[in-house]
Amino acid sequence: MAGLAAARELQLRGRDPIVLEARDRIGGRVHTLRPRGWPVPLEAGAEFVHGRPKVLLPLAREAREVRGGHYSGAFERQDDLWNSVMEKLEKLPSARERTVAQALRTLRWRLRTTPEERQLAADFLEGFNAAQLDRASLKAIVQQLRASARIEGDRISRLPRGYDVVPHRLARGLRIELRSRVRLVRWSRSGVQVLTDDRRWEGRRAIVTLPLGVLQAGAVRFEPPLPGWKSSAIAALAMGPVVKVALLFDRPHWPDDLAFLHAHGQPVPTFWRPLPSRPNAGGMGREPQCGSAARKGRGRRGPSIALGGAEEAAAAGPGARVGLAGGRALARRI
What we know:
Blueprint: H1 2-12, E1 18-20, E2 32-33, E3 42-43, E4 49-50, E5 64-65, E6 69-72, H2 79-90, H3 100-104, H4 107-112, H5 115-129, H6 138-150, E7 156-158, H7 165-171, E8 175-177, E9 182-188, E10 191-196, E11 200-203, H8 212-217, E12 221-223, H9 228-236, E13 243-249, E14 258-262, E15 270-272, E16 294-295, E17 304-310, E18 322-325, E19 328-331
Parallel strand pairs: 1-8, 6-14, 9-12
Antiparallel strand pairs: 2-3, 4-7, 5-7, 9-10, 10-11, 13-17, 14-15, 15-17, 16-17, 18-19
């Protein structure tokens, strides 16, 4: 996405960029799947539009806001608890750098929160950010929460036809070379040479938007090597692992207004449903999806879908057939 956005900006300024993409598709972590037999697209990667970001909304015109409540694993509505936790997290002192775990152990935090709030806060911070609390930066988390509040980040939307409409709109009119895995980047003041498996590309400048894992693995060499400060920053960053499980049910087993289900201590701690989902006559979902479960499909109360993030694909439960799709678990109909 970053590469497409940069190329689009260059094109708007009269340049003629070329995008080199190692995969056989565009979009990076935006990866929409359309499995046969499922009434809605499934998002293996990015899924939500958080808030009202001005740069994204023109590319996501079909985004529809999710409306529903937060529930506990016992199906108890806990919107007030959720809102209280979000408000208190934004007010965490973050002037000095420390881990989230350190902040949540302070006497100040414990005096200002209930046991239920502390539990939900820890689950949210670890799950939403895919980060271990003893490694996650409190300063970065608080900056993120405050930035989200400025764009009404509590308003969440989904794209009924799939998030991949966004990269495809960015890609219109761009020259994109798929299956072009870069091996070497030679750079100097006079220009850049980029070597792929079967070709050499030259230009005045190159914008590198490689994933962090690719940079850390050294899969692409740079000549001369990157500056020490940049290499140190790359080595110090981390990406958290996430497994997403999608479940298709014959009928719903949850409240009609359930949007998110928080199941503390379970292998799959968070579920969401594709609200407000309604199938069209052909059976394909045309509504945004939001997380723990959504009704779709045949008749007036057709199949429902539950989506969840977890560390174990086995959390799909007994009777589910689990296959890998794009490196993430996809649990077929139970």
